[in-house]
Amino acid sequence: TWALYGMCDASEQKPRAAAVDSHALLSTATDGADWAAYGRTYDETHHSPLTQIDAKNVAHLGLAWSFDLPTMSSSVGAPLAIDGVLYFAVGLSELYAFDAASGRQLWHYDPEVARVAGERLKGAWGIRGVAWWNGKIYVGTQDGRLIAVDAKTGKPVWSVQTLPEGSNHYISGAPRAFNGKVIIGNGGADYGHVRGFVTTYDAETGKQLWRFYTVPGDPSKGFENDAMAMAAKTWTGRWWEWGGGGTVWNAITYDPEFDRVYIGTGNGAPWNRKIRSPGGGDNLFLCAVVALDANTGKYVWHYQTTPGESWDYNSAMDMELATLSINGAERKVLLHAPKNGFFYVLDRRDGKLISAQPFAKVTWAKGIDPATSRPIEDPAARYPNGEAFIWPGPLGAHNWQAMAYSPKTQLAYIPIFNVPGYYDDRGIDPKTWQHPVGMVSNGGLNTVIPDMPPADGKPLGALQAWDPVRQREAWSVPQLGAMNGGVLSTAGDLVFQGQADGRFVARAADSGRELWSFAAQNGIVAQPITYLANGKQYVSVITGYSGTASAFGPSSAQFGWEYRRQQRRVLTFALDGKESLPPAPKIEATKPPDDPSFVVNPTLAESGAKHFANRCAVCHGLAAIAGGAAPDLRYSAIPLSAPAFHSIVHDGALVSRGMPKFEILGDGDLEAIRHYLRRQARAAAKTPSDNAP
Fold it and tell me: Which residues are catalytic?
């Protein structure tokens, strides 16, 4: 469905589309008036050359306009701004267009994901961004569609299904556009048998141009290319029966200088290499940067950050392009700070390692061997006897939230996390283990979180400035919350970031000193952007503490964000902006509803805890302590009614709101979850200070 708002005629909008040189708009040389790609330009640096707003006048920044978004499970999308129009997608890939200066809504397009997604509806995963090319906006959907929408009218132009029928794949990442093409990856390696790949389509027609698989398939069926034949030599056993993983669920970078596409690949499926590749091996191309010919999709080179990974150490984080002076020579490099905690500088010509150093606490490896370019692993990290406690954990030292690189300061700005991981595969037999059907899985492990991070006021993250030439920290600012927002840097000597505590902050790029902040009344995970509209510089960000960030029990709930009451918004700022937000809702602590006749069965509650952890916690929070992405079920009356609970969880009565239906759960499973929620609710009633809604 699509709708136009506030317009008598589509011709009233300013002309754009085909008259614009799309390639020039995305090149590094562009003047910064537009933000036309996820990372602004092809180099994906999340940096703007604009200087109207700078370190000297940012204190005068004020709210220019805001827009209240519907209640939804995810509002983490990165906007685009082109010729004075702001475009973004939130929730289940719903697209919006606004006049960037006034905040007037132009159109809204709903691809009706909830109606068609079926089992691919993963409640926690919204859409992270969109792409633009030649007058069209491109968005992916959880059910696997790539849709082109006319940027002027909001009408769909074409739609193509990118995923195999019946697979566990889904889309949550932003497409990228280049040279008349649009490329999209996918996720899903934690939900079942998934083989990663990327696909490139003609930007005008949606015709498939090429596809590259990231891990090899069944050898008996032949390999698609020489790269897959090479990769197969690094796997053992019958890996293809597990899918293998390696999904490209976030980072993709186009390099116009070499006419290549770099893809960042994800974890193995299952995580535990003892299951998917029992004889060991590097398992290419998991957790790697892979360079492909942009026209054909042919393999060029790769660098694997975590060979034979067994910890969910994705390399699906930013891959940013820069030119650095190293040892007196200008080097065209790729900057990469993946989950495993090392900051990599790679030569873009051939993928060779230039340098790598830990940017956060790392214990799984002692360093990167400069002779072999491989990590110097601690053998105990692979839980050879069943257990390992290491840094970082599966959240990674840096996740998908955007880092930025400023060519002016020559610093990278990274939102980092300081949470370890506990890996335990005791009692799991690699010969008999099966992936749980229809649920998120730790991939052949009993648990990977040592405990819920406490809400004790201690920092769990930081905004860090990193010098990629000297490979050392320039400055760091501790932050509360397991996850904070993506980062924007500007030539005005500023770094902008939204925080878990609900503040939108501008800092001095050279020191990290706070220069300005705004109370956004909700946590922020999304990245901000900046652009010109009518010659004036604006900064926009989407608020809402959602996705994985809100799932970590007390550490997420400590800020008091509540699914039904905290407003998700688009906030746009300009110098001397005079608007203000309405007062924040007053949240008073209440006790969970209860039915004294409901007697908790301890055995059922323990069984329900496992179901909840595997299927529900990613939205509703660890230990049923929600952080804002979904209702806190301890305070909901729904679990008190078996028919109501069945209707929502099993039958999908709230699918339209992003709540998946779990038809695989039988009556006994549902009853066990109800007993678990009653246990947690009664525990909360005894501790009313735990940020109850």
Answer: 312
143 burial level (CB within 10 Å; 0-12, 13-18, 19+): buried
Residues 383, 604: Cα–Cα separation, whole Å: 31
Beta bridge partners of 496: 488, 506
Distance, CA of 621 to CA of 637 (rounded, Å): 17
More confident of the two residues 548 and 544: 544
What's the angle, vertex CA 201, arms to CA 531 and CA 151, rounded to 5?
A: 35
Q: What is d(CA 588, CA 144) in angstroms, rounded to the nearest whole number?
A: 41
Residues paired with 346 in a beta bridge: 334, 353
Which secondary-structure segment (H or E) carries 164?
none
CA separation for the pair 410, 398 (Å, rounded): 19
Cβ density class 587-617: b for 16+ within 10 Å, e for less = eeeeebeeeeeeebbeebbebbbebbbebbb
Peptide bond before 270: cis, by omega within 30 degrees of 0? yes
What does the block give as tokens for 122? 């993963």
Q: Are 548 and 399 in contact (CB under 8 A)?
A: yes
Nearest to 443 by CA among 452, 434, 451: 434
**pLDDT confidence of residue 2:** 39
**How many whole angstroms separate alpha carbon 103 and alpha carbon 57?**
23
Give the end-to-end CA distance of the chain in Å, rounded to a whole number. Answer: 34
pLDDT tens sequence across 77-134:
999 999 999 999 999 999 999 999 999 999 999 999 988 776 567 655 789 999 999 9
